[in-house]
Amino acid sequence: MTAVTVAAQVATRSADLQLSAEPGSITAVVGPNGAGKSTLLQLVSGQLRPSAGEVRLGDTLVAVPGVHVPTHRRRVAVLEQRALLFDHLDVLDNVAFGPRARGVRPAAARRRARAELDAVGCGDLAARRAWEVSGGQAQRIALARALATDPQVVLLDEPLAALDASVAAAMRSLLRERLRAEHRTTLLVTHDALDALALADALALVEDGRVVDAGPVVDRLTRPRGSFVADLVDVNLLPGRLCAPDRLDLPGGDHVTGLASGPGPHPGPHPSPGPGSQLGNAPDAAQAPGATGFACFAPAAVAVHADPPGGSPRNHWAATVATVEPRGALVRLRCVLADGSPVAADLTLAAAAEGGLTPGRRVWLVVKAAQVTLYAR
Is residue 244 in some structural domain? Predict the structure, then answer.
């Protein structure tokens, strides 16, 4: 049995979303702005009705055209960027609000609220008003309020995005501890690869209103299948066709030599695939000649030369500098190969200045084969 099943369309948003999550799993949902991540969460929470298809929570059908279980009758809790605490209530009654709204008697609701506040390290704040606590404390209190309702599913909509780095790190650890301890099925919308890697079992990529790829989070972050996830983890990704265990041919006639990568690790449960999704073990690059594949390497692995390099390195490509972006002590060069493929390179300020590396400059890019990973789609 799955804990969440979405197989629904929303015509007004051009969305056709297919996703399922196993009980107790945490699925990171990523994708560009406007791709459909919020639509997915709203279908699960009941804030949005599907125009076709269905939404199930466990065995219960909660949405289908003509049938709609309202939000307050679904065992779903939502935690967003803003804590949205009630200013007119103290912290204890903020947390007790959820159980009381579900019919729990006041005394029992407050007992549960105290237990949840203690569990998130905010028991000493029970008598304060919402406006008397810090942003990090407010988010911990909001988590306590969410879990006090015994939700079947927890929906996290970028809950760490508005927090300072140190506060976000502590909140990330707390989320991992609380969600894992209570075996809560969770959908986590995030733009942070660290959130996905630290919290999730699986990753689902949403683009243009569809789940286009889904699978184990470690595999998807270490071997991305598309430009959005590659940008998320800050690596170069070149698509092409595998023609040998250690070679990928690029569309423009260049090729990439690297190390073949077999199937990645599978850490726990993961979502079911939607149309076009790639789930489970990807074929080993060495066993898939002629298949669509990728070359993946870090910007720091790219050397930039003003003239053709000597010694015939295995990976060297002519390119044009498109942009030059200062990044502290480094400079990020964004270059374009002959076929239009983008490649980023990180250089020191001194190297960029000495090489006269400005937009429009023709250069040669060199990457050692040992720093390139090849894998099939």
Answer: yes
Residue 288 confidence class, pLDDT cut points 50, 70, 90: low
The count of other CB atoms within 10 Å of the CB of residue 124 is: 10
Q: Coil, strand or helix: which one is 256?
A: strand
Among candidate residues 226, 346, 241, the one with its CA nearest the CA of residue 277: 226
- The residues, ordered by sequence, that sit 6+ positions from 275 with a Cβ below 8 Å of its Cβ are 16, 18, 210, 211
For CA atoms 307, 308, 311, 317, the dihedral sign is positive
Query: Edge to edge, what strands does the sheet with 26-30 contain?
Result: 76-79, 153-157, 185-189, 26-30, 202-207, 210-216
Q: What is the CATH number of the domain that holds 281?
A: 2.40.50.100
CA distance 365 to 308: 9
CA pseudo-torsion sign 76, 77, 79, 85: positive
Per-residue pLDDT, averaged over 82-111, amounts to 93
Nearest Cα to 187, choosing from 74, 80, 51?
80
CB count within 10 Å of CB 152 equals: 17
Counts for the chain of helices (H) and strands (E), in that order: 9, 22
User: What is the extent of the structural domain holding 276?
Assistant: 235-377
Question: For residue 90, what are its two tokens?
Answer: 């103290």
Specify the CATH number for the domain of residue 190: 3.40.50.300
Judged by DSSP in three states, 241 sits in strand
The predicted model gives 34-57 an average pLDDT of 97
**Among 192, 207, 222, residue at a domain's last position:** 207
Number of folded domains in the chain? 2
- At residue 151, does pLDDT exceed 60? yes
Position 162: which residue type?
A
**pLDDT exceeds cutoff 50 at 279:** no
Instruction: Give the residue with greater pLDDT, 154 vs 275.
Output: 154
The two three-digit tokens of residue 225, written as one number: 């299948």
Exposed, middle or buried, 95 (CB in 10 Å: 0-12/13-18/19+)? buried
CA–CA dist 46, 54 (Å, integer): 12
For residue 144, the SS3 value is helix
Strand order in the sheet with 330-337: 303-305, 362-366, 316-327, 330-337, 342-348
Mean pLDDT of the chain: 90
